Amino acid sequence: MKIYNTKTRRKEEFKPINEGKVGIYVCGPTVYDFIHIGNARPMIVFDTLRRYLEHKGYEVNYVSNFTDVDDKIIKRSNEEGVPSIEISEKFIGECKKDMEALNVRLATTHPQATQEIPEMIQMVQTLIDKGHAYEKNGTVYFRVRSFEPYGKLSHKNIDDLESGHRAEAHALKVTGEDEKEDALDFVLWKPKKEGEPSWESPWGEGRPGWHLECSCMSKKYVGDTVDIHAGGEDLIFPHHENEIAQSEAANGCEFANYWMHNAFLKIDGEKMSKSLGNFFTVRDVCSQYDPQVFRFFMLQAHYRTPLNFSRELVEDASRGLERILNGAEKLREIADKKNGRFIMDDEQRILEVEMPKFIERFDTAMDDDLNTADAISVIFELVRFTNANTSEKSSSNFADCLYRILFELCDTVLGISLERKAAQIDETEVAQIEALIAERTAAKKEKNFARADEIRAQLMDMGIIIEDTREGVKWKKA
């Protein structure tokens, strides 16, 4: 498998630290509100990475944190007059509900920043002892120039960064609000302010800096060196750059061997923004579309490609997913039939030889830097193969073999369920639907085909799809 490594800007053969095992750390959301659809992209993408690595036989330790102490959480807690922990715990719960809806599996560990404070204090002290950090009036700063390779992930030149910070730093120093030795230095520990949560430390009561949190949680739950560190491309600088600096300065070894970053999500070609009125939470989108459609839409583009969210594109994805679900349903019906053929004939045995080739081509696509777009194209080809080579006369074993391949690639690896979400229909509506179907059946017997067509159209307007089979009329909610 090859992965595009942000640090080297090229695809590299993936080689884990420990054979057969992979440690992954993905930066999770700050839990002050419902997660938005931009948050959902890394969740879906790197959940799929985890699933694919497991498909290849790796044992995966997948760690993704919740940032549960932050300025935004504190601001909301002050506005609502409740403790910040109440805000964070509420939205951790809501985030997990959205993850479940999107079929994003829970991480091996979901650490929370507030539960790892002792480890953070220990790392800060280590950095001070090694000369990489210093304290000024309760604030501890990381001394950026003490870490020579600073900028190796973002490929930013430290002198260019200095000139960009100079005016800002001068203004802060004039007002006495900043006591940094250098404009580039960043905060590891900040002193307590009124109305903020805080913890005891050698430098007084305070709380950790955001960058520090992820360094400590990845060290504790994955190790000093992570196989794959991932997140959105907006985190490359300064968050991930600062993580590298403080982790490698403290631990004395490479922080992460591979860095993966997903591209931005746009709304109708524009950046998502509350001020533009195009800001959508996952909860908003899932109230309009099946969450599985949204996941499928996300995976139809390569993760490093900017993705444009629009109603038309999501509806296109819905139609594409429907073709796959129809193919899966057909296979289930043939595989489950009780009074049909079970043993493959010679023609089906010849076709059976073709089946593993779909898995090989799917894996080839995924091995090329997690190319889910090409992998989905293989699934569509598998569905076309299924439709062309199966019928009611096919053996159940032949259909079952095809279904198991489709299930492994689509459900197990991509996380796209092959079972349609059961539509919620009340008893009154069921009675109305069945009465119309009975009337249509009677009209057909009386050769009143015009009336039968009118009823079919009426059912379609109600969102009901009907199918005439040997066993009678079958119906389902669209």
Task: Describe the protein's architecture and organization.
By secondary structure, the protein is an alpha/beta fold. It has 16 helices and 15 strands. A four-stranded parallel sheet has the order 4-3-9-10, with helices on both faces. It has a four-stranded antiparallel sheet with strand order 5-6-7-8. α1 links the parallel β3 and β4. It is elongated. About 2% of the residues have low confidence.
Strands of the widest sheet, in order across it, are 4-3-9-10
Backbone CA Rg? 27 Å
Total E-strand runs: 15
Note the beta-strand portion. Answer: 5-15%
Q: Helical region count?
A: 16
- State the secondary-structure class: alpha/beta
> Separation of termini?
39 Å
Overall mean pLDDT stands at 92
Stretches where pLDDT is under 50 for at least 5 consecutive residues are 166-176
Summarize the structure.
By secondary structure, the chain is α/β, with parallel strands linked by helices. The protein is built from 16 helices and 15 strands.
Comma- or semicolon-separated keywords:
16 helices; four-stranded parallel beta sheet; 478 residues; four-stranded antiparallel beta sheet; alpha/beta
Task: Reconstruct the topology from this structure.
Layout: E1 2-5, E2 10-13, E3 21-26, H1 37-55, E4 59-64, H2 71-80, H3 84-101, H4 117-129, E5 133-136, E6 139-142, H5 158-175, E7 186-191, E8 206-208, H6 210-221, E9 226-232, H7 236-251, E10 256-262, E11 265-267, E12 270-271, H8 282-286, H9 291-299, E13 307-309, H10 311-336, H11 346-352, H12 355-367, H13 372-389, H14 396-413, H15 427-445, H16 449-461, E14 464-469, E15 472-477
Helix pairs in contact: 2-3, 4-6, 4-7, 6-7, 9-10, 10-13, 10-14, 12-13, 12-14, 13-14, 15-16
